[in-house]
Amino acid sequence: MDAYPLPKNDANFAELTPLTFIHRAALAYGNHTSVVYENIKIKFTWKQTYERCLRLAAWLQSFGIRKNDVVSILAPNVPALYESHFGVPMAGAVLNTINTRLDAAAIAGILRHSAAKILFVDHQLLSLATDALSTLTSRPEVVLIDDISSTKRSASFGLQYEQVLASANPVAYPPVPVTNEWDAIALNYTSGTTSEPKGVVYSHRGAYLSTMTLLLQWGVGLQPVYLWSLPMFHCNGWTFTWGMAARGGTNVCLRSPSARDMYQAISRYGVTHMCGAPVLFNVLLDPTECRQLTRPVHMLTGGAPPPAALLESIESVGFRITHAYGLTEATGPALVCEWQQAWNLLPAAEKARLKARQGVGALTLADVDVKDKETMISVPRNGVTQGEICLRGSSIMKGYFKNKKDTDAAFKNGWFMTGDVGVMHPDGYIEIKDRSKDVIISGGENISSVEVEAALYRHPMVLEAAVVAMPHPHWGETPCAFIALKKEYASNEAGIEEGDIISYCRDKLSHYMVPRKVVFLEELPKTSTGKIQKFILRDVAKGLQKNNPKGDANSSRRVEREINDINRQPEGRVEHVMVLSRL
Questions:
Q1: Alpha carbon distance 530, 580 (integer Å)
Q2: Which structural domains are found in the chain, ordered by start?
Q3: NCBIfam families from the entry (predicted)?
């Protein structure tokens, strides 16, 4: 073949980018609904959404935005946030979506580190953004995203989103072509602290491949109706921001998705797909709002491995669950629990156990393995031997922005080290066991907090459970359990005590794995995407003594006060665990 060179040309080669999806959607599904918002007060077609994205890209260029400039946006799931996923990179810029639950200091840290040129901010978050901007010496230009479902406008504010779109000229400023698929498309921060922020840089190539992979492995067909129960700022909505354009789907946007709003949207729009952490199951199973679905809704979930009992409960309502694992650094999906037809014949409990596994590698990855992190030797495929989950492939991040030290540490011998502990089953499916920092080492024995939590979730009164290490004078560490009871038991009139939970665990677990301390809380602290904030609980557990009162009200109130104090610190303290199975 070398004697007959066949060079690349414009006809047989194009740089991979998800920006091609929306142009295709405008042509193939131009009159199909692309976005609905606020109970259908706002409704766009794909032709209209494409036009709005072109206008956004044109205005950014006319304002002076150039290739690789960072454009930030602070907003809930509103149409402007969706449009930014296309409009910003169409201008050649890099999109930075900011977690809306961060405090002003953390947001300021992101804006400072990213050197964002423009900040789009939702009208309800303007005060928060103003506080963040007040601490900066070099500030981005601010564009207000006004409430497009209202006729009222903030006339006193200089730049407003709808006005800048109306003023833009897409003919004079057409989209900037992607000439290198390795160029950055998005910058997602896993930490909002000002000292060492971690900005994960995605490439156009990685975003394209990750989007296609997840659509294929989840089996998303043509024209799905997708409910935005997952924040778009989180890993760019697990790539479904771009994916819905690829499938010509309908984006159902909710500003604040409550159980009632989600069920109403499912019924009104015929929702077919949605995503969220397992904590969303508890929201949907709230006895005051839960309702039986008239048609199945496919839900992709991640976070701590969902207990089998919880999976059975949510599926009995009509949701069809697919479990996945990923992380911000992997552009979202890394493992998907692909369902095999033979498993349909298994009992419900066994099917739920299999669904709780994280699965096989995403198609965009070249390889996935579980290795001894010291020797980098693969662990046996026995479902028992633990090691660190390692990944490599085109969907892995380019690296951490302005952070060579952490970038170099994340890559080892050609692998990305996730920091997650897992096992490889004989069938090649991986099951996560813990974050490496969440493994409890008691008397030399490794205890999986996930395994202890799974036992606690089987208790009929337990709604939420989290287990962390508590210092112990003899064993070094022992498990400490934090529990929230189901709504009907929340007043604890049933009289359940710490000793009851400990006795229950003794019947389910090896003795050394049983929690030595149990604390009852009204609600466990969580991130905006539903991940339980174990770093807060670890801080609290350090101060707990073995002989504290057995979960009495005074003890619980004291612990809740401590949690509230810690929670006032920037959410940016959360380590880089924002993702699918690390949400």
A1: 11
A2: 44-203 (3.40.50.12780), 439-573 (3.30.300.30)
A3: PRK08162.1
